[in-house]
Amino acid sequence: MSARSLFKNATIRKKMMLLFLIATIVPIAASIAISYHETRSSITKEAITKNNRLLSLGSANIVNYMNNINQKSLAVYNSMNVPRSLYYLLEHNLEDESFPNGISDVIENRNLLKDHLYNIYQSMKEFYKIRLYVAAQNTSYLLWNDDIKVGKHEPNTIAMAPKTYIEPTHISHNYGLPIKSPVEEEPVFSLHRPIFLAPSDKQLAELTIDVKTSVLSDLNSQLYDAGNENFYVVDQSGALILSSKPDYVGQRLDDGWFRTAAGAGAEQGHFKWDHDGFKGMIFYQQVSTPYMNWFLIKQTPDSHLYAAANKTAWLNMWVGAAFLGVAVIATLIISFRFTKPLLALIGYVNKIDSGNLGVQIDIQSNDEIGLLAKRFRSMMQTINNLILKEYRLELANKTIQLKALQAQVNPHFLYNALQSVGTVALQQGNKEVYGLVTSLGKMMRYQMNMADAEVTLSQELDYVQAYLDLQKERFDKSLDVILMIDERTRDIRMPKMIVQPLVENFFKHGFSPSERPAQLVIASSLGEDGSLTIVVSDNGCGMPAEKLAGLNAAIQEEDRPDGAVGSDNGIGLRNILSRLRLSFGPDASLSVQQLHPHGFSVTLHIPHAKEEKEA
Fold first, then answer.
1. Could you say which residues form the signal peptide (predicted)?
2. Which pLDDT does position 567 carry in this prediction?
3. Before 199, cis peptide (omega within 30)?
4. Beta bridge partners of 538
5. 597 cis-preceded (ω within 30 degrees of 0)
6. I need a labelling partner for 418 at 20 to 30 A (CA). Which of 15, 38, 126, 503 fits?
7. Are the C-beta atoms of 120 and 209 separated by less than 8 Å?
């Protein structure tokens, strides 16, 4: 039997237990997995940003320091043409017997040279030794602390570099001079600067400055965690300048991760590495100047990088296990508790299904099952009421339809009678009476056409014009009607009998022919968003402010019965707004305003208006 069949045939209690366990285990497991993944991802991004920033700072510090050393080495060229300057001594061969006057001058020149070298030596506390090799004499001058040693070399044993460069870390030595060091030598890196006879390329000498590697340790100590991460300063050939592993100093790196970093061709970067006994992230930063090309490389093991994430994951697992135990116990209790009222409710449902809609559901508990039973009782009462209401509504609709059919007889009779009157008036030559009868006929035909619930604005305006023709005759033509209709709006469709009630309100509430010449303005415009705006305004007596505010409030009342606002016998303003919103949605609006010094205005706003061809 398949698992699906087993689940399908299981009892409600077993299904609830299984589903509750799944609903508990899956979210907890998913939460732990997602949390762990997101934590690792966040830690990785943060580590990349942090280490890139740190290595950039370390690179800037090293470049500044090395440029300072390089600048100190250029002191040889200070005051080139001044006698007794270091460059002047080198240019004129300080120990050439023809230059000084005697052996005393040679000693004086040596002391002077010592002073120059000592000034360079004292300029930075990290300088360990300074050696000046003079090519013309094949002689080296070595300054250490406050003592200077001089020694000649074998011919053709010293090769001077053509340009300034940095020699990788090595144990300090005496450059072939027979000097016994009183203390143990220490690791240094050296800057070698050739000294040329300006402006030619002839080399006069070579200045070498030994610098303690401890300065690099101090500069980079804040860039890594010494107990958990590895840090290297390496030149482009793989020679170690500085290493967090002291035994590595002086060696040459040939590991795959170094070749990957050096061959990336990028100034800064990072990559994952899982070879050669290391698994984690490797960050690198190139340190480049005209006289050196180094790399700062930092190894961060995954065990250190994700220590916090792993700790959080284990904590989540223990919490999840505790929740799971609580969930199992709660599942057993809930499943037993829910089974009994659920079975009772199923029994009531079966009775309703058999046709007993009036069954009394007797479940009195206050938990969710009890609430469900109460809602079910309420639902059955609502269904019974709706069935009764639908039955009554159907009867009412039949009655209304019958009355509507009966009511069509009288309008047709009146319309035919008006045609007869118009014919007689035309035969008698009374064109004015014929025009009035024609206008009245148009109005009746417009109202009797029940097939079209919607008409175009142009059709509605024709109906309004017929109504105004009758009103002009009634008030002895003392009425000025102005139509300002945007031609783009004439084909827009709208519910029937929208504009005419607004015009009718003017004659019922605002028109006073004895006071001033009456003026009625009907305007329409089309907005950029396709909305239609219709404004009906007049210069009538208007409305007091308090009454106007009450009218605006009454128009916006959702539950106000149709026809309660506006004329007593016509279609009220609220009725107009309700029909607009039924056709165009809740954004349709109607507002009334008092005009100054006198007059009244009604504005209709119809959103998303459609032309006749679109409708």
1. none
2. 41
3. yes
4. 520, 600
5. yes
6. 503
7. yes
For the chain, helix, strand, coil in percent to 5 are: 50, 20, 30
Q: Do 175 and 160 form a contact (C-beta atoms < 8 A)? A: no
pLDDT score at 246: 75
Angstrom distance (rounded) from CA 124 to CA 97? 34
160, pLDDT greater than 80: yes
Helix (H, G, I), strand (E, B) or coil at 480: strand
Angle ∠(490,494,497) on CA atoms, nearest 5 = 100
Which residue in 351, 200, 270 sits closest to 46, CA to CA?
Answer: 270
Q: What is the largest CA-CA distance in the chain?
A: 156
User: What was the pLDDT predicted at 161?
Assistant: 81
Q: How many CA atoms lie within 13 A of 456 on its CB side?
A: 15
Rg (CA), the chain: 52
- Tell me if 499 sits within 8 A of 522, measured CB to CB: yes
Q: How far apart, in whole angstroms, are the C-alpha atoms of residue 523 and residue 64?
A: 78
Nearest to 587 by CA among 604, 570, 607: 607
pLDDT (tens digit per residue) in 179-210: 776 667 889 999 999 999 888 888 999 999 99
In whole angstroms, what is the distance from residue 164 CA to residue 72 CA? Answer: 13
pLDDT exceeds 80 at position 350: yes
pLDDT, tens digit, 9 for 90 and up, residues 391-417: 765 765 566 555 545 555 455 556 666
Which run of H or E residues covers position 306? none
Mean pLDDT of 358-381: 77
pLDDT at 341 over 80: no
Tokens representing residue 164 in the block: 């300034």
Contact 298, 221 (CB under 8 A): no
- Contact (Cβ atoms closer than 8 angstroms) between residue 370 and residue 341: yes
Q: How far apart are CA 10 and CA 336, in angstroms?
A: 15
DSSP code string of 219-262? HHGGGS-TTT-EEEEEETTSBEEEESSGGGTT-B---HHHHHHH
SS3 391: helix
CA angle (118 as vertex; 114, 122 as ends), nearest 5: 175
CB atoms inside a 10 Å sphere around CB 251: 14
Q: Residue 102: what residue type? A: G
230-235: strand order across its sheet: 240-243, 230-235, 292-301, 278-289, 268-275
Other beta carbons less than 10 A from residue 197's beta carbon: 13
SS (H, E, C) 105-131: HHHHHHHHHHHHHHHHHHCCCCEEEEE
- Is residue 441 within 8 Å of residue 422, measured between CB atoms? yes
Closest by CA to 65, choosing from 270, 209, 236, 226, is 209
Specify the pLDDT at position 325.
82
Q: Give the position of tokens 């009531």.
A: 348
Q: How far apart are CA 467 and CA 471, in angstroms?
A: 6
Instruction: Give the angle 564-570-575 at the CA atoms, nearest 5°.
Output: 50
